[in-house]
Amino acid sequence: MPLVLSACAGRGLEITGTTGLAATDQPRLVRMYVASTRPAAGEAATTRASFAAATVSLPPGHRPGVIERPEFTPESRSRHVVALPDRKLDAARLQQEVATQLSGRVGTGRDVLVFVHGYNVGYDEARWRLAQIVADSGFSGVPVLFTWPSRSQILAYGSDRETATASRDELERLLQELGGTPGVGRVHVLAHSMGTWLAMEALRQSAIGGKPDLNGHLGEVMLAAPDIDMAVFRSQMMRLGGRARVSVFTASDDRALSVSQRLAGDRVRLGGLDLTNKQHRDELAGLDVRVIDLSRTDTADMFRHVTFAEAPAVVRGIGAKLAEPSAGDAPGAAGQAESFVDPAARPAPSPPPGGPVGRVDSAPLGPPES
After folding, report:
1. Does residue 129 sit in helix, strand or coil?
2. Which of 106, 298, 341, 344 has the lowest CB atom count within 10 Å?
3. At 161, phi and psi to the nearest 5?
4. What's the whole-model pTM score?
């Protein structure tokens, strides 16, 4: 995700799925849990995670797809997205609190969403982004942020790759613990850019350890603008052995991934596939993934790298996908389709030459932005 600019206390109305989205003159609060491998200020680098409960305040009149931040004026909860002070936890306490949050819930309210950010993203930005996604998607479960020590510098791509690699074990451990939390339904994973590689590596390690589906609790795995080499992704999917429902958000006009591709010796990135190119479509054959092409989707992001969160129709579609009942809750529900492209999810007048890859989902993720 090189050259992408980060965007990768008091009374308030708490967001609890769609019930907190009505117009109000009060800030809205999105509560989340955080697992972080970022070292504290003044501390040496660490590979062990620390934990916290966090709250982010969204302003009245928050606009879907937007993180309202000040340009010149001091931040204000009446106009801006603001992260409130964290409350520190240990690992056991985090699991206990998540279990308490899930207690008494039914259906998709028992789900957990783990968000893994990408390259060039600071801690505050990661919290803001997850809060925005939760609010705009209407997710009704418990959100959890996994944040790794990105240096938040455009030219630190190589350094960020190394620190992401060092965080694999802690993300795997977090996913296993969430999957073992009393009362949990499904553990969904939403990852962006370099964070998709980290998420897939953690799931791969979990599969090697004999738990490819988190003991039956692994839900949707959504990879937004994945900065993953195609050969690496293929090996990761083979290790998962069909146990994960994976969706991939691609865009051939993603400028950040174009730079990443050049840095990788012109090896195509999964998130930058051009689905009008037969060779690229063939790369997806047999991978058992759902592919959503966001090329040419309207977005304010000049790099076209954060479309999954900034295009309102797309983020609403993510929420709709997460709100679908699990196969166990919906008798007769269809399983994961073999590799396919969902033409309804991109503003193209017709499918790419040669038709879509594999089958087309009968329930598209969401309409394109007009």
Report:
1. helix
2. 106
3. -60, -40
4. 0.83
H/E run at residue 33: strand 28-36
Q: Note the CATH number of domain 27-327+335-345.
A: 3.40.50.1820
DSSP state of 367: P
Gyration radius of the chain's alpha carbons? 19
Q: What is the pLDDT along the chain (370 residues), one digit of tens a residue?
A: 332 223 343 333 444 333 344 456 889 999 999 999 998 766 756 668 999 999 999 999 999 999 999 998 999 999 999 999 999 999 999 999 999 999 999 999 999 999 999 888 899 999 999 999 999 999 999 999 999 987 655 545 656 677 788 899 999 999 999 999 999 999 999 999 989 999 999 999 999 999 989 989 999 999 999 999 999 999 999 999 888 899 999 988 776 776 665 665 557 789 888 888 888 888 888 888 999 988 877 666 656 678 888 989 999 999 999 998 875 544 333 445 455 665 555 444 334 444 444 332 323 344 333 3
**CA atoms in the 13 A half-sphere facing the CB of 95:** 12
Cβ burial 150-184 (10 Å sphere, 16+ → b, else e): bebeeebbeebbebbebbbebbbbbbbbbbebeeb
CA distance 96 to 82: 26
